[in-house]
Amino acid sequence: MKLIADNFRITKKSIRDALKACDPKPIQELVKQCVEKGAVAIDVNTGPLGKFPEKGMAFFIEAVESVTGLPLLIDTSNPAAMKAGLEIAKNRVIINGFSLESHKLEKILPLAAAYNADIIGFLLYSDSRVPKDEAQRFEIALELFERAETAGVSKERIIIDPIVPPLAWEDGIVQARAVLNVIRTLPDLLGFPVRTIAGLSNLTTGAGDKKKKRLMEQSYLAMLAASGLDYVIMDILSRETVNTARASGILAREDLFSWGMVSG
Prior knowledge:
Radius of gyration: 18 Å
Largest sheet: 8 strands, parallel, barrel
CATH class: Alpha Beta
Number of domains: 1
Number of helices: 9
CATH architecture: Alpha-Beta Barrel
Oligomer: single chain
Structural class: alpha/beta
Distance between the termini: 18 Å
Order of helices and strands: EHHEHEHEHEHEHEHEH
Strand order of the largest sheet: 1-2-3-4-5-6-7-8
CATH superfamily: Dihydropteroate synthase-like
Shape: globular
């Protein structure tokens, strides 16, 4: 289970201020911290970027790439911003992402074919609704792969995000278990290897108690690893959560064990 940093978010004041002042230093410092903590990729969550999406995206990509050669997940729903990022990026890029929403099928998905990039596929209905159970998620996954093939994107390019639900939802805990089953059984259902990715912070959306939040995230991480998840987008600066992810990966994937493999 590979760890992707989700610490770069436009919702952070420091990131917004850096963009406004055209000052790359806060971004560079944040990214260097993420690299030092062992991230294998950086999720560059820029949001739609308002009136000047191309300029804003160029600034962010250049700032991040000035301090790391790690792959970048370009995380925006704005097609103009996405295209600008793909054009300027020198590092490997993953498009984050598309769903059955019409504007994403028409504007975002074709960019994966045009730029020969991997792309994350969200298991969401065309109106952005989250499916209620495993069967609905399987149906959406099948349609996503069909749509991708039609757009000239090979199935090997798709990384499925089954959408981790907030536990605060009425059926949140039931859906959280459904996500685990989808991750576990999707390759058998489709008949070929399927890479999967999950955003861990979704699980505790709305939680106020940080200690309880971390406990639930760490517990779910172990379950995600056991289900065979390939990538988790998470707070790479949380030492305890990172150690949990790595220990869970050892138990889920390794055949031989030594205590030297365990982070303290």
